Structures are given as structure tokens and as C-alpha cells.
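Onboarding guide, step 5: your first structure request.
Type a short instruction followed by the sequence, for example:

Predict the 3D structure of this protein.
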Amino acid sequence: MKKPQRLLMSIFLTYFLLITFSSCQKDEDLFTQAIDEEIEETVQEENKDDNTVDEPDTDSDTDPILDDEVSYGVLAFPSAEGAGAYATGGRGGKVLVVTTLADSGEGSFRWAVQQSGPRTIVFNVSGEIELRSSIVLNGSEHSNLTIAGQTAPQGGITIKGAPLQFYSVQNVVIRYLRVRPFNSQGAGEGNDAITCMGCRYVIYDHLSVSGGGDETIDFWHFGGSQSGNVTVQRVLTGESQNGGLAGGEQNPDVWRTLTYFSSHHNLSIHGYNRMPSNAAGGTHEYVNNLIGNWKFKLISAECNARVNQINNYYRPGATSNTSKGNGLNMLSVKSGHDVKVYASGNYYEGMNFANQDNRDGWTITINGQAVSPPNPWESYFQSSPFSIEGVPVTVTSASEAVNDVTGDVGANKYLKADGSYGTWQDDLDKEYISDFLNDTYTNCKGCSGFVWYDGGSYAYPNIPTNQRSSDYDSDLDGMADIWEMANFGTLNTGANDDADQDGYTNLEEFLNMVDR
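The system replies with C-alpha cells like these:
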């Protein structure tokens, strides 16, 4: 990636010698081998000779981090897994820099996200953005979007006051963002915190979402369009009426299907119901999630859904219903429906009946009437998981997932000028994690152990407001100048160039430093 003239001259000389002394087919093989060896040798030599820069790094005491990794089989980002892992987001599009916390106007989040065409949104400011109305994207012209919350300085970005709503958009990547749709008086709107209807190829990673007047996150059909190929990973949700909705209303029509959906390594706490609800059809997987202090149903599988429930950890709270039926999972079958479940490795704290056989964590209803096992089991439970598109999810045991997920969930990282990252969580996320680990309810304000924002007083945590200096990213290409100079030797490289030819743009290489 450094000293391109020297590398090109070496390649040219190698090629000249080969075509002088070799024959046609052999030339091609030798040329390819020689080029690979020359590139590797040159890059290694340059990394040894010149892996620091003279300009001091104001964010870190260490040298800037060089991007010396090459990636193949391009994912949304290196740690992307599940059905939405191949979402392209705003790759190759324009870079829009958020410079103000104002609700609207040039430089605002609303101004950036509502533009059309491929785009990546980066932030030169941290703090709270209080929306006066919902941000709505409606139509394919708003597709191909990356929201890179990790680019904000310490404190990150909190969207408050109103929800985010996406309709008929494709290829959406959102990372390291907090969405808490309360207004300054603490009252939430009746909408979901983040809605995505008729959306395909979507991945949410390291979000912190709370205060949905209905669901925290949902995916529906829209106007005859399916949603599908969706991943929600490392997301921390809490204090909403319902957890989530995967699919449209209870109708088996194919166009209402959420085709492929992955929910893995998430923490959801203090939700009333739908943790989540699988309406409509499609193949959905729930892997290594942590669920705490729910009120009623966990997973509800309906219509023609195919559900993998694998190695999740369920920790009930003071008001959780832990009986079969409405307390745990519901498999609901109606005439003409064909719903099936694979359940394995899930752990229900204090509920041995469900741990001995995970199928006992489910209640089966046929046309609204509960039926008793074992007769229905063969018809509705699989002995092996359903296949799903995308990238296989890394799976640990349910008990191992507790430390894994609580140690890395929610909007918890921000990039520094040298390409390293810092960690920071707001007090609300810290309390949610503590509530799960310690079986406590520090956020509860007189609501008898069950936390939902409408049952108690909600207070926003203090979010620091920081602004990047003008020389942090002087050319406004989304890459910090210090990191850019260290990796490319110039600020003239384009955000959409691909210096190492691995499929990730130069800008994405910088954004993906949080995956190291």
C-alpha cells in the first residue's frame, strides 16, 4: 500500500524478464507467481522500513496502525455474520460528514441520511441529536447506506426524540449508534425505535436501542415487497414495550415473508413481550442471545416460519412468567400453516424442565388450542438446524455467551486518529448489562421489578459533546489524516479507491479498524 512507484517498477522489471525468457502459457503462470512474490516481498520490506509517521498522534501514544490485512469474499465488514453479512451499504458512494447535532440543515444527520444514492455517513461530532420528527427513508433511491457511528469522537451518537423508519431500501449497514426515541420530557412515541419494512440486505451491528413505544426493532413486508437477508448482531436493547418483530402480520402469504433473518450475540432486557415474534414466514435463526427480565412470551413462531433457536441464555427477572405457555416460547399453528422449530443448547435459568429437553420450552397451539407433547413434536420440531443464507454464525455454548456478549455489545467503540479504537458506554448501557449479570433492576423507578419506560421515569444518561479538530480529516473523505498518511503516504488517495485490491474501499479499511 506504500511507495506505489517503487512497487510498479519492480513489477514491470519482473514482467520484462519473464516475457524475454519464457514461453506463452508458462509465461502466464510464472508471471502470476512472480508478481505475487514481488508484491509480498516489497510490502514486507516497506513495512519494516517505514511503518511510522513524523506527525504526532493527538489521540494515542502509539504509532498509527497500518492496514496490512487483505480480505477476500467481501462482507459488509470483517466481523459480519448471518443472513445480512453481504450487505454492501454505501460502498463506493459519496462521503457525508455530520458536523452538527442540530435536527436539520446542512451537516446534520437528517441532511445526510435522507440524501439519495450510495453514501457513507461519518461523524465529526459526538453527543445527542434530538429529532423533532421521525427520519423516514422511503424508496429505492435511498438504498445503499452506511451509517458509521464508530467515527464519532468519544461519547458517540445518540438519536433521541423520534424513531428511524426505512421503507423499501436495500443494502443498509448501521454500526455503533444509539437510538432512544424519547423526547426531552422523557415520553416516547408510539412507534418502534427502528423500523425496516420491505428492506433487503441489512445488518445492524453494535447498536444500543431502547424506548420503543412498541418494538425496539422490527422488519416487515411493505407494499408487496418482502424483507430478507437481515442480521442483527451485538445489539443491546432494553426498556421497550416489546422486543422485536420479525415478519409482517400473521399471514402466510409469500410476499409477507422475512426470507432470511439472523439474530445473534445480542442482549435484550426489560421487555414486555415478543422477544421476538416470528410472524409470517421465512427462515430465522436466534443464536447466542441473552434475554433478561421479560414479562411474557419469548419467541413466538407462526405461519410458515422455520426457526433455529440455538444456545441462547434466558435469565428471568422479578416479574418474568416462567411457566410454559405465555411465559416461554409459543409455536402457533393454524389451518394452512407449516411452522417448524429446531431448538438446541438453550439454557433457561431456574427452569430445569426446559433445559432437559429444549422442546419443553415451547407451547404448541393448533388453531388456538394448546396441545400436549409428545404427539406434536415429530411434526413441528426438527432434529437438525435449517440452512440459512449468508455467513455461518460463530457459536459457543449458552454459558460462554454470557461473558462473550456482555463484554462486547451495544455502541461501545469509537475510532481514534491513528486507527486504534477507544471504548466508551453510556450509563444506561452499563446499567442494562449490570442488571443482566447481577439480576438487579437499577433503572426501575417504582415499577415493582418490571422495567418499561412507560411505567417509570426515564432519564437520559449524560453524553459528552466533542468535536473533531479541523485537521483531523482535512479533506473530508471520512479517513483520519494521520491514519491516511501512515497507510498511503498522501492525502490524495480517494475514499473509494481500493489500495490493496481486497474489495474493501480505503474508507472501509479505516472504518473496519474497530474489528481488530
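Each response can be followed by summary notes, for example: Confidence is low (pLDDT under 50) at residues 1-57, 445-451.
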